[in-house]
Specification:
Helices cover 36% and strands 18% of the residues. It is an alpha/beta fold. Among the domains are: 242-354, Flavocytochrome C3, Chain A, domain 1 (Alpha-Beta Complex); 427-559, Methane Monooxygenase Hydroxylase, Chain G, domain 1 (Up-down Bundle), CATH 1.20.58.100. Bound molecules: flavin-adenine dinucleotide. The site of flavin-adenine dinucleotide has 46 residues, from helix 1, strand 2, strand 7, strand 14 and helix 10.
């Protein structure tokens, strides 16, 4: 097969990469601000039906009740994030969230559950001082994404579905000029010339053995920005959700049983039937934050108090089967699919890789260091600090998606379409086609399994220097083999080839996670070092910045700026 030198060319004012909550809110706002702008929506999966926003079960945090307050939501977010947060980003999140909920109801057409008094019902979520989680049963993401998807028919962006973005490209003066992409149905390369690019590919938490996110999220956006020289922050901060379903080799292993369960009184039990959270956070028990609960479960499992299949159990059957079915229909159905039943008895669960707090550095208008490039949603870092509160993720994607849409109009003003440097375009496309052009080399699937096991065992819920050094060496060796990976022909709808491209980005992101985890010699939020078990505010109220250097990643640290709230000490209960 020949290397395709002539990509299909598309010109657009705005290219939005990703069609989760952030991508679609961006389109909605950009169109509202200037209906004359042409928008291309680049989506690796189905538009509006790929990514994790659609998977949101629990709900959306927003201050709606007069007896709640923005300040309380902000404090909860910082307490949860262990004060590593970019306070301006967190403040913007909590301030905009009520407005965006209102917009989702009145403009986008979402229906959220309401109480008998007619007001939006808000439920309890872990780590929060007030019941402020807006929801639609336990299928909130489907409601939001279904309605946002409908809005796209009205707005009419150019939808490039099943098209994966490859690389950002610049012109010969170093100015952003667009991106390269691949239509993976046809196997054809594309060059999308754009005045403004918005990256919203939803981050990456899929390179751990047990993982919750949608499979198309393989760190593409973060890796793309890293290759383009942009600074990333908090890459070591990977949240493990405490309750991922354990279902053997089923694809449902890792799927989240959401936080609302613990909020509603679910109990976590070890194999001896003991409610073990009393040993880890006697005050909050199962309603403690995710990092504490995930570590507690992991410790029980590793201490030999786990179930035979390496998990613990969650039980909410004391509420009665009818009540559990009414309140958590999605989760009941999911457990029944794998031969268990949440409504009538305990279900086996394990910590599961869930959300990446780290990502590209942005300001409150989603701007990055590169003019014309905006980043929104889970691809961005800083809002959640060392740990994300349940309910703040979909808030982030829609709040910052909306803000990026407002901002693109300003970015586009005065930015002409630029001619991408042909050498950069050719290099990106050549790199993508390389696995197809090789006659020999490993296939990607076994390497993906190896990556996931390595990250689970050496850079998982509990880390230490020895394990992280082993992860570093393992990843170095893996990267050498990934560079030689091969995919058989043909290029059209070729899953082996797509797996090879996913793997390349996953290894890039995994290496940044491991390097940052090695550098942070303390425990904070989701990052727990068994060899440095204490949070050390004296030396580590700093965030780690990683960027691409001449010889791999270059790491530096910067002090957290407490622009609004002084860091409070760790809350511990006996
Ligand atoms: C199981 C689960 C349950 C959750 N529940 C909650 C909850 O109850 N409350 C909460 O606040 N948060 C929750 N979250 C987190 C929340 O889903 C995320 O924070 C949020 O949805 C991220 O939105 P996003 O728009 O950034 O990305 P996503 O919605 O994940 O969208 C990513 C998009 O990028 C596309 N894409 C990826 N790579 C490429 C590429 N190379 N080229 C083109 N397109 C690409 C994908 O196809 C997809 O369209 C949950 C997450 C999971 C996994």
């Amino acid at each position: 097969m020949d290397f395709p030198t002539e990509p299909d060319i598309i010109d657009t004012d705005i290219a939005v990469i990703g069609t989760g909550g952030a991508g679609l809110m961006c389109v909605l706002h950009a169109h509202a601000a200037d209906p004359g702008l042409s928008i291309a929506l680049v989506s690796k999966g189905a538009v509006g039906r790929s990514g994790c926003t659609r998977m949101v079960q629990g709900g959306y945090n927003a201050v709606l009740d007069p007896s709640d307050s923005i300040e309380a939501h902000f404090r909860d977010t910082l307490d949860g994030g262990k004060y590593l947060n970019d306070q301006e980003l967190a403040w913007t999140l909590v301030n905009d969230a009520p407005r965006v909920i209102h917009e989702l109801e009145t403009r986008v057409g979402c229906f959220f559950d309401r109480g008998p008094d007619g007001r939006i019902h808000q439920k309890a979520f872990a780590g929060q001082s007030y019941d402020r989680t807006v929801h639609r049963g336990d299928l909130t993401g489907i409601e939001i994404m279904g309605r946002l998807r409908d809005q796209m028919f009205r707005v009419g962006p150019r939808e490039l579905e099943d098209v994966r973005a490859l690389d950002l490209v610049r012109d010969e003066n170093g100015e952003l000029a667009g991106l390269t992409a691949l239509d993976w149905r046809t196997g054809r390369a594309m060059l999308i010339r754009a005045r403004v690019v918005v990256v919203a590919t939803g981050g990456a938490a899929t390179m751990w053995k047990i993982a919750a996110p949608a499979r198309e999220k393989t760190g593409d956006g973060v890796a793309m920005c890293y290759r383009a020289g942009l600074p990333l922050r908090d890459m070591e901060m990977l949240q493990f959700h405490p309750t991922g379903l354990l279902a053997g080799s089923s694809r449902l292993t890792g799927a989240v049983l959401e936080e609302g369960l613990r909020g509603a009184g679910a109990r976590l039990l070890n194999a001896d039937g003991e409610r073990y959270m009393s040993r880890y956070d006697a005050g909050r028990m199962e309603r403690s934050t995710r990092d504490v609960v995930a570590r507690a479960s992991y410790t029980e499992i590793m201490s030999g108090r786990g179930t035979e299949s390496g998990g613990v159990r969650i039980d909410i059957s004391h509420l009665g089967a009818e009540e559990v079915e009414r309140r958590f229909p999605g989760m009941v159905a999911r457990t029944r699919q794998v031969g268990q039943d949440l409504a009538t008895g305990p279900v086996e669960v394990s910590p599961t890789a869930h959300f990446h707090m780290g990502g590209v550095m942005i300001d409150r208008d989603c701007r990055t260091e590169l003019a014309g490039l905006l980043v929104a949603g889970e691809d961005a870092g800083g809002t959640h600090g060392a740990n994300r509160l349940g309910g703040n993720g979909v808030a982030e994607s829609t709040v910052y998606g909306a803000r990026s849409g407002d901002q693109v109009v300003h970015e586009a003003a005065g930015r002409p379409l630029r001619e991408p440097d042909p050498a950069e375009v050719a290099e990106s496309i050549r790199g993508a086609y390389a696995p197809l052009l090789r006659d020999s080399g490993p296939l990607p699937f076994a390497l993906t399994t190896e990556l996931k096991e390595l990250m689970w065992e050496r850079c998982g819920v509990v880390r230490d220097r020895e394990g992280l050094l082993a992860a570093r060496t393992g990843l170095e060796r893996l990267a050498e083999r990934v560079a030689l990976v091969r995919a058989p022909h043909p290029p059209a709808a070729n899953y082996t080839w797509q797996e090879a491209l996913d793997l390349g980005n996953q290894v890039t992101v995994a290496r940044l996670v491991v390097e940052s985890a090695l550098a942070r010699e303390e425990s904070r939020g989701a990052h727990y070092r068994a060899d440095f078990p204490e949070r050390r505010d004296d030396s580590w109220l700093r965030y780690i910045v990683a960027r691409s250097g001449t010889d791999g990643a270059e790491l530096s640290t910067r002090p957290v700026e407490p622009t609004r709230l002084a860091p409070a000490p760790e809350v511990t209960t006996p």
